[in-house]
Structures are given as structure tokens and as C-alpha cells.
Records
---
Amino acid sequence: MVLKLYDYWRSSASYRLRIALEMKGVAYESIEVDLHPDVRAHQSDAYRRLNPQMRVPAIEVDGEVIGQSMAIMEWIDETWPEPSLFPADSVARLKARAFANTIACDVHPLNNPSVLKILKDDFGANKAALSGWYADWITRGFAALEAQTPALETPFLFGDEPTIAEICLVPQVYNARRFEVDLSEFPRLVTVDAACQNHAAFQAASPEAVKPA
Amino acid sequence: MVLKLYDYWRSSASYRLRIALEMKGVAYESIEVDLHPDVRAHQSDAYRRLNPQMRVPAIEVDGEVIGQSMAIMEWIDETWPEPSLFPADSVARLKARAFANTIACDVHPLNNPSVLKILKDDFGANKAALSGWYADWITRGFAALEAQTPALETPFLFGDEPTIAEICLVPQVYNARRFEVDLSEFPRLVTVDAACQNHAAFQAASPEAVKPA
């Protein structure tokens, strides 16, 4: 049975799972949940019944829809172990997960459209204030990650192949560029992103590659 | 060698790791990083050098300090496998991680003190607005979790023992109560929290149990 992925081309958490599935060579059916502000399909009653969290991505397993990209990533790796999304060494695996979670827990949640909407509607944030907020969380997170990233001796952060760290980094860099966040202070992160742009799985999973016509 | 945990009694992400370590019966040395607004030890130069993310919890492994509670939780489980912090069944494991990540990614990051400070300083949020924001993210997250939680047939969410799901739930319920968030709509979550309050690991790890004299 083909895996069903509730997906949106521009959702960076969905983008993570598309990369993971492409790295594994796992075929999946993408079911579009249109997050565009004029559509908000994730807030429809139909989608709420499927996924009370009203977010993407989500997958269907045993007839149930389950969300949370980082949990799904672990399940993907357990279900299709090769190639692993994690370094082989225990401490490297800890570092890769910590790198990924700095993005998934400390950056991405703050810049979710639902947060920006509340800032605008309830806190009177104008466009400049929203851009400042958006850039600030990326800059804080990336500054910590850049400081923790050693000079690269391999093409990717943890060796010759990308791991969960790059799977979370690349969609966040995509968001940063989309919102014109200055990345000049993060040369190592930019170098890793560039290496990923030449990797077939990252290419096939990119927003531009999967954007509906 | 005893594991060093950079810890703060009231940090709910630190509380998660204390529970995990108590469940495993792993002795650890708690190194206090005082997050109190009058102290802000996490923002000191000394701590920044150790952990550029300037957050707790963090652990010291092989002479390096590494943060991110959810990454550390996976490392703890890999390093001391028994008793597991995860359900044995693959789909249950996915659900437990998804439950935990709903808190770790969708609730907790929005209510971090660093976020509240920006809302106050840069967006002019008064006390009522901050309380509303705080309660709103907990309520959204808990509403989704309550809707996804079946009628309990076991003492805990995934069987006879707590898992990563309860390890994330209980500290978030603690925060909710501390900020007087109404939990009356979440009877299943409250029942699970009550079961955990009778569990020795949760008791030993609680803020009150570890609060400095």
C-alpha cells in the first residue's frame, strides 16, 4: 500500500518528510492540503476530523492520520532503515538530532503562519514587525548552529551523506531566503545547504519540484 | 562517570529529562543554571561558551555540552535501553512521539520566557495579553491531544507504564497549572497526569522535589 502524505508544497515541515522519503526511495501519494491564506484547507471541518491538530504534514497509517514531522521521521527511519537518516555513532546521532531539533523546536514553531496571524490580529504587528520577528528567530537559531558546526571535513555535517540535520536545515534555509533573511553570518550552514541542493533527494523534494501546476 | 545535567528546577524541558533519568534509574549530577529573571545565568558568557543555544537542559558528553531535550531523550533511551521510554509497537511508538512533539514543538516553544519577553518589550503586550497568549497555545495543543486520546483502558496512555508522551505531558500540565490555565476540557489528560503523580520517577523529578533550598 502506498503511503499517504498530507502535504503542502511550501510547508517546510512537509518538505522535511518529502526529503526523507526520497532519500529512502519510498513511493508516496501526496494529498494536497492547501495552506494558502485564501484557502486554509487545513482548517476545514473535513481535515480537522482527520487531524485534530489541523497542521501538515501528516501520514495515514492503519487508517489513522497522524501528524508531527519529527515523530514521522523517526517512524520512516524505523520502517525503512536503509539508508539511515542518522549517523551511526551514538554521540553523532545525538548531535544530529540536537541540530535538527534546534530548528524544529526553537525556530520553526515561532514562525508558523498561525503565530504570525495572532501577532498581526491581536498584537497589532505591522509588516516590518512581523519580518523582524521572523528573521530574529531564524538568526538566533542559525547563530547557535553555526557556532556548534565545526569546520567541515566532509560534504555534509556528519559525513558523506545527509542526515536528519540537513533534512531540517534545508527547508529552514528555504524559508529564510523566501523572507530575505541575511545569511551572511552563517557560511557553514550555507555551504551545507549548497551541497544538499546537488543531492537528488533534496532536488526531488523541493517546493519548486512539487509545486502544483 | 556520572552524567552532568545542566538543569533548572522550574524548566519544563529539564523536568522531562529528570523524569527520563529517574525512570531509567540513572544517577546524574544536576548543575544549576538559574533562569530566574533576576539572574539569567543561561545568558552569561560562561554558559554561552558551553552551550551557544543558551538554554537548558543540556548534558555533557565526551567533554562537550549538547542541548535539546528531545534529542537527549532519544540518546538516553539508546544508552540505557531499559525500561524503554517508548511503546514496543511501531505505530504506538509513532503516536507516542507525535503526542510528545505536539507539546515539544507546538506548545512549549511559544511559551518560552524568551518569547514572552519579546512580546512584552517589542510588542507592548501587557500582563493580560501575555496570559492569554500563554493559555491559548496550551489550550490549542491540549485540545488536539485530548481529541486524539482514546478512552483509557490502561493506567497510562500507551499501556501499564508511562512513555515519552507522559514525560512531555506532565511538565506541560505543571506549567498550565502554574499559570492558572483552565484544564476542565481535558479530562483524559488530567487523569493521565494524576496517574503520573503517583509514579516514583515523576515524584522524584518534580520541580518541588528538586527545588534548591
Note: Chain B has two domains: 3-83, 90-203.
---
Amino acid sequence: MTATSSGVIGVFDSGFGGLTVLKALLARLPEARFVFLGDTARLPYGSKSRRTIARYAAESAQFLVNEQGAEFLVIACNTASALALDAIKEAVDVPVLGVIEPGAAAAAANSLTKNVMVIATEATVASHAYAAACRARGLHGVEKACPLLVPLVEEGWIDHPVTEEVVRIYLKELLDEARQNGQNPDTLVLGCTHYPLLRPVFERVLVELTGPSGVRVIDSAEATAAEAARLVLETGGFGLLGDGEAPRIQCFATDSVEKFERLGSRFLGLPVGKVELVDLGG
Amino acid sequence: MTATSSGVIGVFDSGFGGLTVLKALLARLPEARFVFLGDTARLPYGSKSRRTIARYAAESAQFLVNEQGAEFLVIACNTASALALDAIKEAVDVPVLGVIEPGAAAAAANSLTKNVMVIATEATVASHAYAAACRARGLHGVEKACPLLVPLVEEGWIDHPVTEEVVRIYLKELLDEARQNGQNPDTLVLGCTHYPLLRPVFERVLVELTGPSGVRVIDSAEATAAEAARLVLETGGFGLLGDGEAPRIQCFATDSVEKFERLGSRFLGLPVGKVELVDLGG
């Protein structure tokens, strides 16, 4: 935030799912430059403990800020946002935005019944971060860990009968739980950056289970990008907006850069370019 | 191997799947003592690079030998055996047995057609370690990565229609590939320590696809335990056999000891006891 501003926004995820957030950011901030780090050597965070996730996320944030000059950080990982946002804010000296609060705010703006459902990883659900953020906005919610969905997306079974059946099982259990609690949910929050790739499957199964206007899908990635863009623009760009050049992206990964380059474009919707390997000592 | 022998066998896995190997070892060496390490903070290894897997596995082996006094190491992780056995042997000064060679030897002993199929993680298949070990024994084989099976086992969907359908899809693709190569496989090697929990599913689907005596399932965990017991017993026990006390197990994990304690018994077939948390600096 100084006169020598590097003008870079840092985006962090445990893997490359967070590229769905970067995709939404690119659309909203076409003049900004981005550095993205996927901590692929230590993924998945979703099945690990708070202590371990906090350490990994803080190290990753420090790499983006101290070594890559990021002046604004978007934590594009639900698990890290849910369990390590405070640890990240302590570790670096720039503004930090996670995905939980924007996701919950978007759910609150959408829900008429004030009953929402959240699906996420094991660790995100166990943290109850979404439940707390929803409660703070007057919403009642049910949450469910869906640990099979990330591997299904990474296997490339996006539009596949097995994936549809798994989604059907998970969503039916979640709806049953909500109804047993006397709730009438009208909103489903996608609390994991892999899930937007399955959005058409969720929408198809929700129509089957709740009718054509039963439940609307809210994507935390999209909500977070909107909030990040608002923060950047309302403060005059934080020095983060470029001079009209094409958007520039530099991606880093702690392991498997070939896999990142191969699968990343599926999430980003365009080629990720050359991914640089970085060693965070893990 | 000295007069002050600690009498402990070290068993290592990236997670707790290797407890299926420990289970087989307990049955074969009822008087031995075991230390087990699951590197749960850094799992899964199966999707990571050779460089990273070698570093993690060497650090884990050093913990078992240097800090826990293991005098014989069983690498109960197919991925580490496939990609890091040399790195582990360089890192420690005790005999080391991986799961690949015993698995391939058992396949060779079973196969009449000399055509085998191997299923494993992404990294194990990419290493072609099973293919090389099979070729050295005059076998021809096809291999397939089955990345959805570990998450399905960990979700507890052991006897579940979705799991059966996923197994059917994977095995059908593998059989088709073998037949296109003009092969007639009669043996399926389970090249991942999670897979023995799905053995009834594999057997049911194989009967459906190849008839009642079409393909026999070989479990690398079982083959490795048999080879480890042979090595220990043929050398007079290596000082590793106790004085007739009940078998003793001490389990360590680098993360999520509660999850280890909760799920571990599913793999071990008996309670894993209190799991100690250890920090390998990753």
C-alpha cells in the first residue's frame, strides 16, 4: 500500500480448486495482477487438524506477501478460511479476505425462509465456521461434509452417473436432516472450491428433490470475488489496478506442477500458463 | 541386531491403510513387538511427486529407526515402496521390506496365464514399479490408477452400491485394456493398503465380469507380511521375537490422532489403542 506498490493480489488455496475464485476475480478485476499459490505438496487440508492447517496456511500466506509482494490476500480455500484465518492475519501485514463470510452474506441475501444448507470438507464442517457466520446473520442452517466430491472432480467425473448418485445421497441426507429440524431450506452454499464444477449436477438433483424453484445454489467463490472487488475498488484500487494491460497471472505450487498445469485449466477456464515449483519446507 | 536389541519391527504408511499389513504381521509373528507410524499430516502420498514422497518417507523411516529403535522396517505403503524404497534404504541402517516385490511374487505364484492386473494409486501406477517387478518374473500386466477407492473406504462406504459401481467401472476398463492387448488375466493385485477392505466387492464384481473362476485376488499386504515373517524367522528372529508376551503395538501419527484411533480399528481389525502425535517438521 505504498508508493512502490507491487500492485499484486495474492490468492491462496491448498490445491488448485481455488482457481475457481481466481476465475471470478479475473472477471471482476480485469486490470489487476494476481499471484496464486497452491500448497499441493500438503493437500488436502480438509482432513487435517486445525493446528496443522494453521501452520501450513500461515507459511503459504507469508510466501505470497513476503516473497511475491502481494498487498491483498484472498484465502480461496474454505478449510483454511474456516480454521486458519486468524493465524493468517497474524502472520502477514496486509488485508486478508476469506471465503466464509462472503459466502454466508450471499446466503443471507438470497434466503427468504432463512434456512440454509452448507456442504463442505470434513474440516470445514467440523469447524462450524459457516454455521457461526450464518447464525450471525439470522440464518438457521444444516451442514454436511461431502468427502467424495473432491476426488470425483479430480477424477474428471464431472458429468457422470456415479457423481450424480453420490450428490443425490448427500443432498437427500442433508434435506432430511433440515426437515427433521423443522426447517425449510431454500439455499445451498457450496463451501468448497471444487464444488462449483459440479454446479449443474447440484441444480439438477435439487430440482428432482425439491422442485424447480425449491433451492438455489450459492457459490462462495463467486461471492468472495465480488466482495474482494468491492474492497479493492472502494479504496481506489489499493494501488492494485494496472494500466490497462491484459490480466496477468503467475501460479506457484509446492508439488506436482505438471498436474497443476494439466488440471488447473479445468478450474480456471483458461490455461494457467507455466507453474513454478516452490519449497515451503514441508 | 545387537545384544541390546530393542526387538521392535517398524511399520510405516502415509496414513492408516498400512494397518492392514500390521494386521497380517500380528497374525504371522504373534510374539513380535511393533511400532507403526502413519504420516497423516502429509497424506495422501498417492497424488504427489517422487521427490516429495522420497523426502517424507525417508524422514518417517528415520523416526522409526532412530527414535523408536526399530530394527526391521516394513514399508506398508505401496506408493512409498514404489517411489522411495531406495531413498529409505539410504536413510536408515536396518533391513527394509516394501510391498511391491512380495506382491509381484505372489502374483507370479498364482498366475497360470502369466497375465496379471494391478490396481493402485496414481503415483504407484505412474512409477510402473509393479509392472517392472512383474516383468522380472515373466508376467505381463496392465495397471490402473483407481483414485476414488481410498476416499470411498475412508467414507465408510465399504459395502455400498456406489462403491460397487465404481469398482465395476474401473475393473471393466482394466479387463478391456488387457483383452485389447491379447491378454487373458487370471490375477488381480491389490496394490494399495486400503483395497483389502473392499476385497468382497472386487471378488463379487470379478465373478460378474469373468465368471466364478476367472480372476483371483492377490493382497500385497498379506504377501508382504508372509515375506517379512519368513525373513524374521529364518534369521532366528533378528532378536525381534519377545518372550511370549501378548503382541504389543504402539502407533504414532503426524496428525489427527483422533481420526486415526477412530478409523484405524477398521483396518487393524482390533482397537489401535492410544495413538501418539509426532511432529516430523513438515
Note: Chain A has two domains: 8-98+222-277, 100-220.
---
Amino acid sequence: MPPQIQFRLRIRRNDEIAVGPGKISLLEAIDRTGSISAAGRELEMSYRRAWMLLDEINRSLKEPAVSTAAGGRQGGGTTLTPVGRELIQRYRQIEATAEQAAAAELKKLIKLLAP
Amino acid sequence: MPPQIQFRLRIRRNDEIAVGPGKISLLEAIDRTGSISAAGRELEMSYRRAWMLLDEINRSLKEPAVSTAAGGRQGGGTTLTPVGRELIQRYRQIEATAEQAAAAELKKLIKLLAP
């Protein structure tokens, strides 16, 4: 099996991960599914856990990453705000930039691995 | 508190992390201390855990990352091989390259965070 490369960016503040792979995946799942509970199911986490992560994301940003329409949990659904979309886009772009920049050096490291 | 940026590289193969931050930190600690048990203490892991991680590292490389002098656990100490040193050096260089390449984009992402 060829080796899989993972570059993961985490931004910590006050002993909390303000932005990291789990939170970005949650926002992406909310964008796909339009709901916190469906996103939680997709990522195999409880509604409570998804809601708490989302609350941490929203508190760590200047403006919230999602907006919930009237009706709440059972009702109106949850969509990403422009800031939420920008956060995902920038995060994924940074990962791609990092992988591209390090590609040549990564090849040399991988040559140290057993076949 | 200013945000702390962490870029972490992991190389997975066969559902195992062949190279990752924990294993690189262990090799660095062995290099500093000259022993698996002292390195384990420094990283707050058991000798058994440190030994198992090291075994995984050695098995995932073409050549072992460490060599243990006669005497074993109580005796001769453990030192890095040239391959072990090259692995650490390349890993840390890749992290630095990634951070430098993504620095401008990271600043824009950090602007989305609450002050």
C-alpha cells in the first residue's frame, strides 16, 4: 500500500483548538447536509458533541461560521455564513499550499521508508 | 494569548502511522538522552510504550533509526543511526517549509478569529 501523506493544521488558543481538522470537517458536513444532526451522524458524533464543537468554532471567530434558521434543531436547518465558507476555503488552501511546497522534500523522506 | 500554529505531518501506511510527531519527538528525546527509558520518562510514556513505538519506526524504515549498544536496557545506551538523524532532519525541514509557504495565507485565516 503506498504511504498516505497527511498534513494537518491546527490553530490553538487558550488551550483550545480554535481551528483544526475535526472542526473544518464538521463545517463541511453541515454545508453538505444542511443540518447539525445530519452532519453529526455523517461524522459519527452525537448531536451534543457536534453542537459543542460548533459553539467553540463560533466563539473563536469574529463572526459565526453558521446560521440556524427559525425552527431550531427540528426545523429550519443550518447553513454556512460567508465567514464559515471563507474559513473552510482558506484552511484547505493552506493544506494544499503546504503539501505542494514540501512535495520534493517529502519524496526524499519517503525514500527512507521500507518498500 | 496569540494563536499557536501547529502544522503536523503524518505518513500512514497499512493503518499505522509510519512517521508522525510522536515518533519524531521520541527519536529526538533518544538523541538528547542516549537511552530509551530516559526518553520515555521525558515524554511521560512507559518504557514499554517507547520501545513499541521505536520498533514500529524501525520496521517502517529501510534501515533502523537507532542502534543499541551491547548491554541492552540497563547497559550500553541507544544512539541514532545516520538514517535516524536524516529522518528527523527531513521531517523538521518539511514542517518549516510548509509553514513558510503558507505564512501569508495563514495570516488571512487568523484575521477571521476573534481578537
Note: Residues 69 and 75 of chain A are 8 Å apart (CA to CA).
---
Amino acid sequence: MRAYATERTPRDTCPADAPDYPNGRVPVLELEDGRLLLESNAILFYLAEGTHFLPDDRFERAQVLRWAFFEQYSHELNIASPRYWGTHNLPMTEERRVTLEPKRRLGYAALGVMEGQLRQNDFFVGGRYTIADIALYAYTHVAYEGGFDLGQFPAVRAWLQRVAAQPGHIPIKQG
Amino acid sequence: MRAYATERTPRDTCPADAPDYPNGRVPVLELEDGRLLLESNAILFYLAEGTHFLPDDRFERAQVLRWAFFEQYSHELNIASPRYWGTHNLPMTEERRVTLEPKRRLGYAALGVMEGQLRQNDFFVGGRYTIADIALYAYTHVAYEGGFDLGQFPAVRAWLQRVAAQPGHIPIKQG
């Protein structure tokens, strides 16, 4: 099994020379038999089935997906994209300039939704570490690189610490 | 079990007076015991588990999710949003004006990805009708209301017919 990924690439800025997979996007998981699976959170779900990273309970499994879709639609779009523009020194086009403020507002709203959930819960679903936490940790823990200040989100900050303390956690940044 | 939904509301334009559920958004599924589930595609997954609308095979299940995430990130954002602005007569703000052309381009790209898949397959996953088709049918069959022309996507048009011919299909529009 092989995984193709750069750092997860916000898809509005996917390079034209990305591998010629269906959709032209990373990440892609390639199974031993050559079958391909796209979409980061579909890959997480596939890899987690049958492990303690995905609950057996039907409702909890759906809740994991609820947070995975939230991550893609409400979080990644608004928090990862501005960070990507900055960390890759992309030109400030009119589209980026005009959408930056709305993205900032919606990104903070997404962080507020997370804060609300984490005030009462150590992890997003079922009181334990699942792929919902993995999906949301990715861009939350580097949100500051997109100009987001987590100062008003103490429950999110405490959760970031809990995730980073999981067995086997490998930081992508050295602090 | 009760479902709260208007027509699915693109979330960048969710009304401020939406029901005060976590995230302030529809649709929401309320179970008999009062538990709530958000996110349209998480709701579809929950309702489909154990039915023929969701494959038993682990890889096919992940493929269904791959298309569900594609629907949210690559399709809904670019095809449903401009339609919503028009069908609800929303003002053409600077943000909407500047993002319309990129959304059009990315929306046609998403339709092209669907066309590629449907040229070889009657349905998106496993050769049969699943929630991947249900998720993608929703805004594809009214894409013309957002200014999209399906003329160059014959496989998508044939698939729309196949979906509409499913037993129990209830059109939201009378033709």
C-alpha cells in the first residue's frame, strides 16, 4: 500500500502538474492490487475500519463522518486555504483578496463550533480519539500560520495537546 | 425520526435565523431518542447502513465516501452556491462577483470528473445505485439553474435519467 501526498493541498490551488490521477489531486492511496482511493477523509475511514480509531457503534460512526464533512466544508476551506497562500507565497489575486475576510470569519466560526464541542468532551466522538480528531488536528494545529489566533479557544488548545500526546504521534514540525 | 431541512442550504449563505442547532445549519436528523446528526452526507451514510444503498465491501464503502467528499468540496461549493444566489435573488456582492468565474470553472471541472467516471460505469460505485449517486444527483439535476450547461456531458445526462428512473424516486420539480 502506498500513499501519495504532499502536505495536503487545498484543492483550489492544486498545481497543474499534480499526478494524473482521476481528479488530478493528492492525497491518493494505492492498494497492493493497484486500486486507487482519493479524498483524505475517505482514506482515513478506509484505513481506520476495524480499528479503535473508528467506533463500532452506528451512530458514533456517523458522528465521525459528521465531523469529517465539517472539516472539509467548514474548516479546511477557510483555515487551510489562507495558510497555503501564505506558506507557498502565492500571489494575492483579486479572488484571494476578496475571499480572505469571509474565510477568516467562517474559519473562526468553525473554531467556535469545535470549541463548543470540546468544552464538554475530551475528543470529538464517543469520548475517545478517532479519525475525527485526526482529520481536524491537521490544519487546526497550524492555523496560526494562516493568521488564526487560538487565544479565545482554550478547549481547542487543550485538545491539541491531548492529540499530540497520543501514542505514536509524529509531529510534522519541530517546536 | 425527524429530518429538518429546507432545500439543502449552501452554508456560506445560511440564514442567521436558522434553527439553533450546533453549527446553526440544516439539514439535521433527529433520532427518536433526541440525538442529533448533522451534515447531509453523514445523514445519508447513517440511514443507508445495512441497506443496498451502501455496499458491504470495505473498499466500495470507502469509494462511496470518496464521492461524498468530492460532492461537498468540489461539486456543491461550485455548482450549488451560484444556483442558490440566483434562485433566492441574493445580492451580487463583491465576493460573489469575484468568485463566480472560478466557481464556474471548478464546477465544470467537477462535472468533467463525473463524466469520466460515468463513461465506464452506470453508477458511481460498484455498478449499482448507492448514496454516492443520491448525493451527487441532488445539485447536478438542477445545475442548469446555476447557469451550467450539461450539453458536453452526455454520460452525466444519461446517469441523471437512470437515477430518476429508480424505484421510489420522487422528483422535487415537475418537468
Note: The two ends of chain A are 31 Å apart (CA to CA).
